[in-house]
Amino acid sequence: MYTDNTLLTWGEYQFMKLCRVPADYLIRLSERKCTDQNLVKYIKENMDKLKARRDGKIQAPPLELKFKMSGVIVQLVCPDTDKIIFISQKDAKYEIRRIQQLVQEGKKPSRSYECKKCGGWHLTSMPYDEWYAIQRLSVR
Predict the structure, then answer these.
(1) Helix (H), strand (E) counts: the chain
(2) With 70 as the cut, is the pLDDT of residue 66 above it?
(3) Ramachandran angles phi, psi of 17, nearest 5°
């Protein structure tokens, strides 16, 4: 079941909370053959609110940055993706190199990307080719 705080996992607004995805985009999805039935249900149940947002009668919730404490380090966290915000691509790449040197099992970030939602930089373990393929499929 989708809620306003559910992250969209594909498409142009991937990793954005539904309450912050442009209303006209969601309305257009409902008019097309969207295969995500849970998303279609969410859109239909919230159509009045989406139309009001599209028409400027109500606003999307304001972007609120969260902070995460790790020892004495304070980190900004993107409210839409729940990922740590790096101020620059250089900082993000430095963190990738640092993490790559750690001995651990599981996924490690391999690249950084600029977030359309917060304007900062995030880390991901998804290779660019795989991400690009997902983007192409979601546009159809």
Answers:
(1) 5, 4
(2) no
(3) -65, 145
